[in-house]
Amino acid sequence: MDEEQSFFDKLRELRERYLGFLDTEVFTYEDIVVTISDILFPVLLIILLYYLSNRLRSLLIDKILPRYIEERKISLSIGNGSKYVMLIVGFVAIMASTPIPWEKLNFPILTGDHPLLFFDVLQLIFSLTILIFLTSKLKTVFVKQILSRYSEDIGVSQSIGTIIQYVLIVLGSLIIIQNSGINLGSLNLLAGALGVGIGFGLQNIANNFISGLIILFERPVKVGDRIDVGSITGDVIKISSRATTINTNDNISIIIPNADVINKQVINWSHNDRNVRFGIPVGVAYKEDPALIRKILMEVATEHPGVLKKPAPEVLFVQYGDSSLDFDLKVWTNRYTDRPIVLKSELYYSIFEKFKEHDVEIPYPQRDLHIRSGLNPPEGASQSFSGN
Fold first, then answer.
1. Most CB within 10 Å of its CB: which of 42, 142, 205, 329?
2. In contact, 248 and 233? CB cutoff 8 Å
3. Which CATH class is domain 276-357?
4. 311's torsion region: left (phi>0), alpha (psi -120 to 50) or beta?
């Protein structure tokens, strides 16, 4: 405490030495007097603080962090976070060093046996904001730098990182509240109002938050999975406390409430792994040799780089159709899990070229028309026929 006082005293001495001649009153409120130097000195210090924080950011990003962290995105995140922390802490220290009697502005928000003061609430909000900011940055570093070395599944790493972030936020919030100087008895009224609000107006938010926790712990879906929810198909790119973000093949981000992911039927194409089997239906004319068709389709499948060799592709003779012999080419892939139409298109192109090389006929729809004899034609029709 003595060190803090000496630091603030030094700042006040600097202000009086260099800006003492500007001690002209700007305004007064009751017994609070504010001069030009009271305003100008903090402004100059804030400008200097901004310059120093930018220098710290550049030093971390360009000189220090590249020695330990390979990914520049994480270095940028840590550098920006350090800059903002320095700005916030420095701003608070500068404002505390001003001769303005802040304690007189610390008016009570709630009165009673345990009054709730304005600055106590402000300090609590500030501390919780810093806690959430730091835990989010810590999660990024933990997932990208530590867990990525032990697990290639980004979804598992994101789930573990998010759970750790929530645990740190809960523990940190309890510590901050206990050391904030706020008597918890003064929060009973606010807690009661919050409970009523959750009961009536915040049901969906509470439902989505709990659903988000279920998703993180049970992991029916995780970041990187290919899922279908109703008519929406895409890759999971983010699971937050309220919603799950899906990115479609058209690069459109669709935000789905977590409750919908839990309560609705979800098709997860990569729940166990990303190996998925697709069927490619093919029809040929009746005159074609089924053995030749099987050989051609297997060649097309084995030559495509996106088709897995194990499990091996296979060709099924499905049925004798109305106009064709129907086959189904079954292929496995893990590269086209999120682009099945692209894989089918490329295979169909190759099948068409192979069929041209071997003169394989792809039939048109055929229908047999039977005309029964012995029916009496309409009168107009017979007369027209005889007239020709």
1. 329
2. yes
3. alpha beta
4. beta
Q: Is the model's pLDDT at 4 over the cut of 50?
A: no
Is residue 249 within 8 Å of residue 338, measured between CB atoms?
Answer: yes
Say how far apart CA 251 and CA 235 lie, in whole Å: 10
Asked whether residue 316 carries a pLDDT value surpassing 90, the answer given is yes
- The answer to whether the CB of 155 falls within 8 A of the CB of 222 is yes
pTM: 0.52
Q: What does the DSSP 8-state code read for residue 22?
A: G
Nearest to 39 by CA among 22, 51, 53: 22
The number of angstroms, rounded, from the C-alpha of 310 to the middle of its chain's C-alpha atoms is: 33
d(CA 62, CA 137): 19
- Whole-number Cα distances in Å, 43 to 47, 51, 91, 98, 302: 6, 13, 10, 11, 71
User: What pLDDT, in 10s, does the model give residues 185-213?
Assistant: 555 555 665 666 666 656 777 788 888 88
* DSSP per-residue letters across 161-193: HHHHHHHHHHHHHHHHHHTSS--GGGGHHHHHH
pLDDT for position 297:
92
d(CA 108, CA 105): 9
Residue boundaries of the structural domains of the chain? 2-181, 207-268, 276-357
pLDDT digit string (tens) for 362-388?
Answer: 887 766 677 766 556 556 554 444 444
On whether the CB atoms of residues 127 and 181 are closer than 8 A, the answer is: no
Give the right CATH number for 207-268 from 2.30.30.60, 2.60.40.10, 2.40.50.100, 1.25.40.10: 2.30.30.60
Given a cut of 70, whether residue 85 has pLDDT beyond it is yes
The DSSP 8-state label assigned to residue 103 in this structure reads G
Contact 43, 99 (CB under 8 A): no
Residues recorded for the chain = 388
User: CB–CB of 208/257 below 8 Å?
Assistant: yes
The 10 Å CB-count burial string (b at 16+, else e) for 196-210 is eeeeeeeeeeebbbe
The pLDDT of 264-276, averaged and rounded, is 81
Alpha helices, DSSP H only, in the chain?
Answer: 2-19, 36-59, 72-97, 118-141, 148-150, 154-178, 188-200, 203-218, 258-263, 290-303, 340-357, 379-387
- Whether the per-residue pLDDT at 170 is higher than 80: the answer is yes
